[in-house]
Specification:
Radius of gyration of chain C: 16 Å
Structural class of chain C: alpha+beta
Distance between the termini of chain A: 31 Å
Helix content of chain A: under 10%
Chains: A mainly beta (about 400), B mainly alpha (about 150), C alpha+beta (about 180)
Radius of gyration of chain A: 24 Å
Distance between the termini of chain C: 27 Å
CATH architecture of the largest domain in chain C: Sandwich
CATH architecture of the largest domain in chain A: 7 Propeller
Strand content of chain C: 15-25%
CATH class of the largest domain in chain C: Mainly Beta
Number of strands of chain A: 28
Shape of chain A: globular
CATH topology of the largest domain in chain A: Methylamine Dehydrogenase, Chain H
Helix content of chain C: 10-25%
Largest interface: A-C, 58 and 47 residues
Oligomer: heterotrimer
CATH superfamily of the largest domain in chain A: YVTN repeat-like/Quinoprotein amine dehydrogenase
Number of helices of chain A: 2
Order of helices and strands of chain A: HHEEEEEEEEEEEEEEEEEEEEEEEEEEEE
Shape of chain C: globular
Number of helices of chain C: 2
Strand order of the largest sheet of chain C: 2-5-7
Chain lengths: ~400, ~150, ~180
């Protein structure tokens, strides 16, 4: 009830408990002397937990968009080693991602609120939470235009150094809001017509996907101003678009994938978008299988391995959850393994450390599965984590801290 | 003219009734253009092209004015919503030829239809930052001497 | 509902039910899967209201067949969200007190009765919390969010006065696409 352990009410309650204990001892003197009976429980003072001051390698954030009650979006923080829920952040209407600062000590959470719950005045803010207390701290107002969609990571990325937050707006005009993270200050809004999603490719550079299947470079100045840079030719056919959920396989390179299962590696070279490689996720024996889900791919940088949720299906199944995880060596463009899942998964992620854990979740299940990435075997299941899980965000830190 | 049973807005009927005889003769082309408009434009620009103030520019009663100022003809192809639509160059040409008449106001004297090759050339260099271009064009349109 | 036509949600529900049974899990699972939204043009299509008369949901047209409260209904081929037909509205009417978003995404579906493709406007009805009934996820012709005119992953309620609160989705016939 009260989070103030030293409040008068707590002291009053403790005094009552002490009196009650004394009264019980008087009423039952024999019981108090029974040697086999453990000592009486001591009165307690309510406390509030504080966590370690930074994320640990196997801590993971999970988005619950709460599809049936979307004003109540949640970000759950889970310890995948212990199988426990560590805490939660209430993140408002159409919750997207938490922006984990590079030191793992703070998250910035872009969120949308209405003055009357589902209606009234709309207010979009970025709220800062220290990992230590998960309590709402400083807040920055941003234009009330955040894209409302099934969440994906690069709708709201940070620059690699954590200096700027970028917010994809859709009104349906497409713009980007920029926030200066250390200054806790809104920088400005920049038009990006025809293009969306911001895939970081350098300290002050990102790549966007455009409606015609081309890529567009965005450049940022040191004070956070965005200018549009070079563009690519059309890399994707209209009938087989690339998902807005690629994985970053090098600082300036992403592995995009199309609805039909083509892997397209593209990045930025000399400030220009560049096509690097095209290969097939199906390979020679995977016909009839496609990638799908709300977070269909995860990449483990240290091992160069790619994990993809695959399902049997044809056109228009891009949101279907995977019944298997296919593992690839990205450098060689070859599949290493097919890992059957005990039940389908719509999101997959992997921790960044050298002994990684693979995470999967099925939208609607409220359960995070922690798996061995070598076999897909379930190590543990963490149930009751919200309801409609979408984005899984492992710790950016590979090393544990005391 | 083939009656097109469609939007019960009555707007389409009005449009078809006011198209030129040459256009009306090609009702199949007009229908195809309307279908492309419905699938690729009206989700935001709304069935009658009225747009939404502050969010989506209005085309109704405004579109053809762009043809009366330098750069306007190109702009209508190169604006991202048109240039990046999942339509062939021929589809875009047909759609624009129908749309400038449907939205009005009157066409400038000497207007000639968009051609597929012209659209292809223009689309290849679509406007990544249309805002300033649009602003200049609107200023030029506002300054037209014969503006009704 | 014949088996080949089962939509994704049905399949997931079945998979999850089987999985839950096999694992003797104490939780039961809904197979609610990534779903979303839609709207654009409902307002102009609604008949002019008659003073003080109740205005029921618009019915299907005579040359249609099927169950408009089922995900398999032909008009819903690209839908992703809750069916307004299960929420007090219909395939072409918003439930009472909700606000149709004027903007939306638009696609095509084929009517099995006459074999024609029709243009379907997936207007969202907005301003209240999610209806929660008849969640459907079919995705015919749906594209990523950076191709918004054909994306069903966007909350199209952004075009309303009420804001972004998504309640349910309609599927309004705009005309033949062939």
């Amino acid at each position: 009830m009260s989070a103030q352990p030293k409040s008068g009410r707590d002291l009053h309650r403790a005094a009552l408990a002490a009196l009650h204990g004394a009264a019980m001892a008087l009423a039952h003197p024999a019981a108090a002397d029974t040697p086999t009976r453990p000592p009486v429980l001591q009165p307690e003072t309510l406390s509030v937990v504080e966590l370690k001051d930074r994320m640990q390698p196997h801590w993971v954030w999970i988005n619950d968009i709460s599809f049936n009650h979307m004003s109540d979006g949640r970000a759950y923080l889970v310890d995948a080693d212990a199988g426990t829920m560590l805490g939660m952040i209430s993140a408002g209407n159409g919750h997207g991602v938490v922006q984990i600062l590079p030191d793992g000590k703070t998250v910035a959470v872009p969120a949308t609120f209405y003055s009357r719950g589902m209606r009234g005045k709309r207010e979009d803010v970025i709220t800062f939470y220290a990992i230590r207390d998960l309590a709402p701290g400083a807040e920055v107002s941003i234009p009330p235009k955040r894209i409302q969609t099934i969440p994906f990571l690069n709708a709201e990325p940070l620059t690699d150094d954590g200096r700027f937050s970028l917010i994809y707006n859709f009104t349906p005009e497409q713009t980007i809001s920029v926030v200066d993270i250390p200054a806790r200050k809104f920088v400005g809004e920049f038009a990006t017509p025809g293009c969306g999603a911001m895939h970081m490719t350098g300290p002050r550079q990102f790549m966007m996907q455009c409606a015609d299947g081309s890529l567009q470079v965005g450049q940022m100045s040191e004070d956070g101003q965005i200018t549009l840079g070079a563009t690519s030719a059309t890399l994707f056919r209209p009938e087989d678009p690339a998902s807005e959920r690629p994985v970053r396989i090098a600082p300036a390179r992403y592995l995009f994938f199309t609805y039909a299962g083509e892997a397209v590696e593209a990045g930025v070279k000399a400030d220009r978008p560049a096509l690097i490689a095209r290969w097939s996720l199906q390979g020679t024996d995977g016909a009839g299988w496609r990638p799908g889900g709300t977070q269909p791919m995860a990449y483990h940088t240290a091992s160069g391995r790619l994990y993809v949720l695959m399902h049997k299906g044809g056109p228009n199944t891009q949101k279907e959850p995977g019944s298997e995880i296919w593992v690839y060596d990205v450098a060689k463009h070859i599949r290493l393994a097919r890992l059957p899942l005990d039940h389908p998964a719509s999101s997959v992620a992997i921790s960044a450390d050298a002994a990684p854990l693979l995470y999967t979740a099925l939208f609607g299940s409220g359960m995070l599965d922690v798996r061995d990435p070598a076999s897909g075997r379930v190590i543990r299941k963490i149930a009751g984590i919200g309801s409609d899980l979408t984005v899984i965000q492992p710790s950016p830190l590979a090393e544990a801290t005391p | 003219m083939r009656p097109v049973r469609a939007p019960s807005t009555g707007w389409l009927a009005l449009v078809l009734a006011t198209t030129t005889p040459a256009q009306a003769a090609d009702s199949a082309a007009a229908h195809r253009a309307w279908v492309d408009y419905a699938l690729h434009c009206q989700g935001c620009h709304l069935p009658g092209g009225e747009g939404m103030a502050g969010k989506v520019p209005a085309m109704r009663g405004a579109l053809a004015d762009f043809l009366k100022v330098p750069g306007g003809r190109e702009y209508l192809v190169q604006v991202p919503g048109v240039a990046t639509a999942k339509l062939s160059d021929a589809d875009v040409a047909r759609l624009l030829n129908w749309l400038v008449r449907a939205m009005g106001p009157d066409l400038p004297a000497g207007f000639h239809d968009y051609q597929t090759a012209e659209v292809a050339t223009l689309r290849a260099h679509w406007l990544r930052s249309p805002g300033p271009v649009r602003k200049d064009l609107l200023a030029a349109i506002a300054a037209l001497p014969a503006r009704r | 509902m014949n088996r080949p036509d089962m939509n994704r949600i049905d399949r997931i529900t079945e998979i999850m039910a089987r999985s839950a049974a096999r694992n003797s899990s104490r939780r039961s699972f809904f197979g609610r899967l990534g779903a979303w939204l839609t709207v654009g043009t409902v307002a102009p299509l609604l008949p002019v209201s008659r003073a003080y008369a109740a205005k029921g949901p618009q019915a299907l047209q005579p040359q249609e067949q099927g169950d408009p409260t089922s995900c398999d209904y032909w008009r819903y081929c690209g839908i992703d969200g809750f069916l307004c037909a299960c929420c007090g509205g219909s395939a072409s009417s918003c439930p009472p007190g909700t606000e149709p978003s004027p903007i939306t995404w638009v696609g095509t579906c084929r009517n099995p009765v006459d074999g024609r493709a029709y243009i379907i406007s997936y207007n969202d009805c907005c301003g209240k919390a999610a209806c929660g009934r008849c969640q459907c996820g079919r995705d015919e012709g749906a594209t990523p969010t950076y191709q918004p005119s054909t994306s069903n992953d966007l909350d199209w309620c952004l075009g309303t006065q009420a804001g972004i609160a998504y309640h349910c989705s309609t599927s309004v016939v705009l005309g033949p696409a062939d």
